Amino acid sequence: MSNRLALETSPYLLQHATNPVDWYPWGEEAFARARAEDRPVLLSIGYSACHWCHVMAHESFEDERIATLMNALFVNIKVDREERPDVDSIYMQAVIAISGHGGWPMTVFLTPAGEPFFGGTYFPPVDRQGMRGFDYVLNAAATVYRDRRGEVTEAAAQLRRALEPAALPPGSVSAADLGVAATQLVAQTDMRHGGFGGAPKFPHAGALDFLLRRYHTTGDRRLLDAALVTLDHMDRGGIHDQVGGGFHRYAVDATWSIPHFEKMLYDNAQLAPVYLHAYQLTGDQRWRRVAEDTLDHAMRELRLPGGGFASSQDADSPGGEGSYFVWALAQLREVLGEEDGTLAARVFGVTDVGNFEGGTTVLSQPFPLVQVARSLDTDEAALRNRLDGIRARLLEARRQRAAPARDDKVLTAWNALMISALAEAGAALGRADYLDGARRGADFLLAALRPDGVLLRTWKDGSAKITGFLEDSAFFAEALITLYEACGDGTYLASARELVDDAVRRFEDGGVMYDTASDAEPLLVRPRTIDDNPVPAGQSILASALLRLAAFTGDAALRERAETILGPLAAAATRSPLAVSALASALDRAQAASREVAITGAPHDERTRSLLDVVHRRWTPNTVLAWGNADVELLADRPLVDGRPAAYVCENFACQRPVTEPEELAALLD
Prior knowledge:
- This protein is α+β, with helices and mostly antiparallel strands.
- It has 25 helices and 21 strands.
- The protein folds into four domains: 160 residues, Glutaredoxin, CATH 3.40.30; 331 residues, Glycosyltransferase (Alpha/alpha barrel); 76 residues, no CATH class; 75 residues, Glutaredoxin.
- The protein starts with 10 loop residues before the first helix and ends with a helix.
């Protein structure tokens, strides 16, 4: 028998549609019942790729005894955090304040007014390893609400006050010391194994990209080395799917060997550009291969028929956690034969003992490939070519296994990150398939998730819903600007301007940007996020988009709006760069001199393409590129030179003499 979640589109909510728990989706119906019956609310928040969410579901929400208790004591609400990052953000702050830590699954007990008074994360079904069982927690929360209402009311009021976003201090863009911020990140880098701090280790793509950005600006080799040591160990680690490409969510250990196996669209969309930028800065083909490997995985495994991208692949496989990805030595030899199986075991660190459950191994590259080639007395390129064939055979064999589930909902913000990555890489690497994927993705979002001019959050099975959040508008605007620079279609730039204007109008209040729109459902508080967790903060990306649009149009009001956003936050970038890396990068753009490149000429003229290639191949993070059919000030009065396509390199719209040869343009950019 199904509950109310059977009418939802979220795969996570649908996973709970047959629970014996009388679940409600988030909404007024549930709270109206709670008020009418003076009953507390149990709010459970998770997402479909979350391993421990599945564990708690199997142990507790599918258990008749516990479900009966939940139904008797509470009005039960289930939320997909990916659909409702606003709800997740508010109550995650509450759980951290209550328990000292957060995570998913998240379990929060609320008054009928939505005020939290107790909460935690995962609870086992019975007392276990120092944790109280869920049945005990349920009874305790209900008893406290019934018998100690005054204490509940006071605790809820205190938490509500604590959840209100603090007033922002005055500040200016110049207050951010980005040199200090970068030095802090270097100091936090594990120079032996890569990453920031100890286990568990997360990719922190934004921090790595900020280090590369500052290296580009300063030439300080320490910044590049700190970024590359992490990129190296992640590439060779078990967090990187050595067979199918793409990155898992995080590693549970300090050496990146054992991952939590979910693959998130947003991680791969953010990591691919970092590896691309490392390639553009160093010329090392290895980083290009990782970028392409990551995007190829997304195009193969996550792209949906309409052009959008699925949100994630599950952490759990039908055969058990990680079973889809791990290998035993005998399995390698069965698929590859004795000789290639032995080679694969040596390269990927597979032993009889294994490093995972049941004597299996999460594939990694414990030793750099050049070192393995030297030990085998062979050429690294020849070994790499042989490994490409081995990977292809392993991938084909792996496809015969029961695969992890895929969450097929399309999230606007996450898709925008992938559109940006594909557009930038498509232009930089000459990959027409990436550029086509970016255009199809953008066209899908514009048609399906902006049906009446208001951007929506999520789409699945033909249905788009939930008013979009600041991150949706900001990420998509930024993606459309990048896509315009890659393909020259001015309609994308025009749409970006519309999104930015709409975001400033609907998400700003009293000079402050909020995560939710003024016309969105009112919540306990109006959330405002400045940290990157795990995607960039919406206002940091909006500021970047405003600065880029200002450089295209010469509209000083756009730049002023960006500086109004960034100024009060500037000190945070110096103080906590790991938490606000997107903010640091936006401040870097704001502090740098604006450089503009305008290229005139027919888009399909080979001479035009040659000039474009000079720009696209380089990573020039604080430069904008105008070309094609956009109606922008930067292209106004930029004639051909003697009938030939020309490039104009400008700083704050003061342009140097136009050039017509690629070599001349390269000299100006370098």
